[in-house]
Design brief:
- Helix content is 38%, strand content 21%.
- The protein folds into 2 domains: 3-248, Aldolase class I (TIM Barrel, Alpha-Beta Barrel), CATH 3.20.20; 301-367, Arc Repressor Mutant, subunit A (Orthogonal Bundle), CATH 1.10.10.
- It is an alpha/beta fold and 368 residues long.
- It has 15 helices and 15 strands.
- It is globular and about 60 Å long.
- 37% of the residues are buried.
- The chain binds iron/sulfur cluster (SF4).
- Iron/sulfur cluster is lined by residues 11, 14-15, 18, 20, 22, 62-64, 97, 120.
Length: 368
């Protein structure tokens, strides 16, 4: 496996909309960070043999990995002998939040080998940040970006939410203008989704407003030199997220840490670790595997997966995938509705348009 993901489950506080496995400090104040470090070290030891001699990508996600000091990360990963597996071309991303950016730590991560930062900004208005349960202020965002660039990072991505209740196009303009004052090379813009029991879910904008906002982001980003290369992702030329592209191309990856997923593409085998820090540590302390579920993909799942992955990218799918009369009819209809188009660089491929990206969930079900 040439791609490695490591999940750091700690956060300063749990955001109201978050469905990743992560624990705010109120839940982790009694947990021992050294216990997690030792467990991760043990899991790294158990799985080192699955990794290729040279890694293409490495991703520290979570959670908030920037809350874990660089020396603790280095100790936990020692069994992987990363110094032998990394080269100048390895993309090593770390997620960070504006409130946990310290110049000294950022320099430490760089010395460790991290060369790409993905910063969770999400919103740029104080009332939105509060409603979302974010711990950082609006002012912390430019300060944090300044620190990241001062530490020497050149490949920096930002996460922003769209479809926040009350958000207008002028809020989006203000956010984009602030963010692009910095030489960011990538932006991920996700539509806010909330479970029904969340009181904010009743105030989410209607589908038409969501669509308008997503198209607005597309227009703004593409007119500022970014390619819209995946449903929610925009990149400057040469700066597409290689780690995520590896997922979207259906290649293998190894995930370590609580709740982390792994995939073996050769055997179409997927597995997942337990989503509990305590159980994860306990199992590894007994030298057992923290994997809780293993699944072999059948032909139907593989077909759906193939369509889901191809449709999310701007490279699209080859027209020969439209095997049945029904599929060809449906594709023709989607083309008339402006949701799919012939690939501008390859007449034998079709892909989603910007409008199609915004409505991708329905389209995948139609064509698969
Ligand atoms: S900082 Fe990120 S991972 Fe942590 S709770 Fe908020 S959204 Fe979830």
């Amino acid at each position: 496996m040439k791609s490695l993901y490591i999940h750091f489950p700690f956060c300063e506080s749990k955001c109201h909309y978050c469905d990743f496995y992560s624990l705010g400090q109120e839940k982790t104040k009694h947990s021992d960070p050294d216990r997690f470090e030792l467990a991760l070290q043990k899991e790294a030891e158990q799985n080192a043999h699955l990794l290729a001699d040279s890694l293409d990508t490495l991703f520290f996600g979570g959670g908030t990995p920037s809350m874990t000091p660089p020396d603790s990360m280095a100790r936990a990963l020692r069994p992987l002998q990363l110094e032998k597996r990394l080269s100048a071309s390895t993309e090593w991303t770390m997620e960070a939040n504006p409130s946990s950016i310290l110049l000294e730590n950022m320099q430490g991560y760089r010395a460790l080998g991290v060369n790409r930062v993905s910063m969770g900004v999400q919103a740029m208005r104080a009332d939105f940040l509060e409603a979302l349960g974010r711990v950082h202020s609006r002012e912390a965002v430019p300060r944090a970006l300044e620190t990241v660039f001062r530490a020497g990072f050149e490949n920096v991505s930002v996460d922003l939410l769209c479809g926040v209740p009350g958000q207008t196009e002028s809020d989006l303009t203000e956010a984009m203008e602030c963010l692009t004052q910095f030489p960011i090379s990538h932006l991920s813009c996700y539509l806010l989704t909330l479970p029904k029991q969340n009181p904010m879910s009743r105030s989410l904008p209607d589908e038409e407003t969501q669509l308008q906002h997503l198209l607005w982001v597309h227009d703004w980003m593409t007119s500022h030199g970014f390619d819209h290369y995946e449903i929610s992702n925009f990149a400057k030329p040469g700066k597409r997220a290689r780690h995520n592209l590896n997922y979207w191309h259906g290649n293998s990856y190894l995930g370590l840490g609580p709740s982390a997923h792994s995939f073996d593409s050769q055997n179409s085998l997927r597995w997942k670790n337990v989503s509990s820090l305590h159980r994860y540590c306990s199992l590894l302390e007994k030298n057992e595997s923290p994997t809780e579920a293993k699944e072999a993909l059948g032909p139907q799942e593989k077909n759906l997966e193939k369509w889901m992955l191809a449709l999310r990218l701007d490279s699209g799918f080859p027209t020969q995938w439209l095997e049945s009369h029904l599929q060809r009819n449906r594709a023709g209809l989607l083309e008339k509705q402006g949701l799919i188009e012939t690939h501008p660089a390859d007449p034998m491929r079709k892909r989603l348009t910007a409008r199609g990206f915004a409505l991708s969930d329905q389209i995948i079900q139609t064509l698969a």
